[in-house]
Every structure is written in structure tokens, then in C-alpha cells.
Amino acid sequence: MAGLRNLSRVELRPARSLNVICGENGQGKTSLIEVIYLLATTRSFRTSRLGELVQHEREEGSVRGELREQGAGHDLMRVQSVGIGPSDRVLRIDGAPPPSVSFYATRSPVVAFHPQELRLSMGAPAERRDLLDRVALFARPELGSRRAAYARALRARQRLLAGPGEPARPAALDAYEALLAEHGAQITTARQTAVEQLRAELGPAFARLGPPGLALEATYAPGGSDDPERARHELVRTRGRDARSRSGSFGPHRDDLLLGIGGRPARTVASQGQHRAITLALKAAELACIAAARCVQPILLLDDVLSELDAERCAALFELLGTTRAQVFLTTSRRELVSDRLAASQESCELWVRGGAVQTRMC
């Protein structure tokens, strides 16, 4: 990797199991796993503007990685790369452009936890919709293009409804609403399946990470319908309301994943520690669901995950990590919290980050 964030030209040879990224705050630990995430997904978990990753004095940055995929009956090697320029993003798999961004982003699955992920249990529904779509994408790679087509049709419908003068042309609205109904029904179906898959993994994960005796419930609250005919009818019926409010009131852009503990909304009743346990359980469930769909273990990125966990929850987290074969990258400014785990693991290493430079110590 070169020219990204504050990182010098970095070459990594990580361990197969546990990789602990140590260093003081502000040295580049989070940037290191952000670049790994970029390599796998083409995106950043810190910003939607990829140009922000490029160092100020440079016009472009890049990351290249050799990845080994071991799954049921296969063992594959490939080279993936992402280049970020002033106005574009260049993707390559084994030197060739991928057929689509979704194809690239599903080759090397990755699951990331970072402090902003607490919005999964505390924040707006958009965060939870993204979680559902990440899970669904590996079973239905066409979901990415359907989401994009749905968003374009939704914006076009709203422009027509909000236009000045006479009411919007019915024929044009019919056309866009047909697209919304078709793509929206497929998105709803994919998310319904994703919720069922997540729910099966979420209970056991929260039982390990959460307070004893407390259960976590997850319920899908669809904003649209999996029936295209019903969706078209609702879109016609809500034209007047949507024109006045200047926003669409029906469709999967209104979906939510409702999380509850003890029969009450987690967003309003959970403590800070419980929110962290909920988020980690969601991440563990995401990891298991993607592994099942892709038949390969995702890479697991954990940024500052230990900072607000007590000793019992830390032990529970490492116990959970011990049940997965995922390659783990974990950042911490407190090495003493993981020293025993490093000593116990036969496939681990320490990556020390100082001023954007990385040194590797095999354990």
C-alpha cells in the first residue's frame, strides 16, 4: 500500500489467525485496517469520499494484496488492487477489471467493527439497512445494481411529484413506479431472508457477549412489499402525500431492523455496555451469515474493540473469536489486554504502528 492516509509504503505479511495492531493513538492503527477494508470492498468505513484517503501531497494512492481463499473443496490465490486517483477508482483482479463493483466486493468478504458501528443499535435505520444488504449481497450479488436502480427511480419520481405547475404526468409516474415496485420487491425479499439468517446467529452470539439472562430480539419492519402488484398500488395511492412531504413514504428505503431487549426497544433502554454487546453480536452474526453464503471465512477487522469492555466481556469476546477460523486484525493501544492471547495462539503476530510505519513481530 502506498500514498494512503499517514501510512508510509507498507508491506505486510500477516499471520493466518490473530494479528494485533499496537501503537499509541494517532499513529495509524485505524488507517491500516481501513486500507485492508478498502482492498476487500473498494470502500472506506470512515468516509464516503475516497479522495480523503489519499495523502495531501499526492494525487493518487493504492493498495495491492495477494489473497488466498480456502473453502469447501477449493484453494485459490488471486491478486486484488484498488487505486484512487483525483477523479476515479481503478479496480483489478489478477490484473483485469472486474465485471462489476459488486463482483469485486464479494470476492474477499470482510466484516468490520469500529466505534461508529455502535450506530447499529443506537442510530438511524439506514445503518441497519446497510447491514441487511451486506448480508444479502453475498447470496444475491445483483442486489447492488437493484439498489442503485431503485434509488434512481425514487429520485426521478420525487422530481416529478415536486415539479411546479400541473400535476405530474401519470404515464411517466407509472413507468418509474413500475421500476420501484419491481426492484423494491426484490430488495424486500432479499432483506427478509437476511433477517432470518441473522436472527438464527444473533441469539447465540448475544448470549455469549451480553449480560446473563438477557435476550436480544430482532424483527424486520418492512417499509415496502415483496409483492410488486401491491407495491404499485401503494405508490399510486401515496402520490399526493409524497408530493406534499417531498419524500417517498412507501418502499424499502423505509425499512428497519428493530432490536429489542427484554421486550423493549434497545435503542432507548440499553446501557452503553449493552449497546456494545449488541453491536458485537450483530457483527458475529454477520460474519457467520457471510461465511455460510460465500463458503469462505471473512476477514474480521476489530478497531478499538476492547477499550470499553470489562474483563468478563473481553474474555467472552476472545472465547467467541476462538470459535471462528477467520483471520483477525485487532487494533489496541493497550497490548497488555491481549498479551495472553498472543502467547496462546500458534498463528499470530504483532504489528506495531509508529508515525505511519509498520513493524511486524511474529509470535
Describe this entry's structure for a reader.
This protein is 44% helix and 20% strand. The chain is an alpha/beta fold. It folds into two domains: 1-109 and 296-363, Rossmann fold (3-Layer(aba) Sandwich); 124-294, Up-down Bundle (Glutathione S-transferase Yfyf (Class Pi), Chain A, domain 2), CATH 1.20.1050. A six-stranded mixed beta sheet has the order 5-9-10-1-11-12, sandwiched between helices. Strands 2-3-4 form a three-stranded antiparallel beta sheet, covered by helices on one side. A three-stranded antiparallel beta sheet has the order 6-7-8. Strand 7 (256-261) and strand 8 (264-265) form a beta hairpin. The two termini are 24 Å apart.
Strand content: 15-25%
- First CA to last CA: what distance? 24 Å
Shape: globular
Task: Provide the CATH top-level class of the largest domain.
Answer: Alpha Beta
**Major sheet size, sense and barrel closure:** 6 strands, mixed
The percent range for helix content is 40-55%
CATH architecture of the largest domain: 3-Layer(aba) Sandwich
Determine the CATH superfamily of the largest domain.
P-loop containing nucleotide triphosphate hydrolases
How many structural domains can be distinguished in the coordinates? 2
Low-confidence spans: pLDDT under 50, at least 5 residues? none
Number of strands: 12
Helix segment tally: 12
The whole-angstrom Rg is 22 Å
Strand line-up of the largest beta sheet:
5-9-10-1-11-12
Order of helices and strands: EHEEEHEHHHHEHHEEHHEHEHEE
CATH topology of the largest domain: Rossmann fold
Mean pLDDT metric: 91
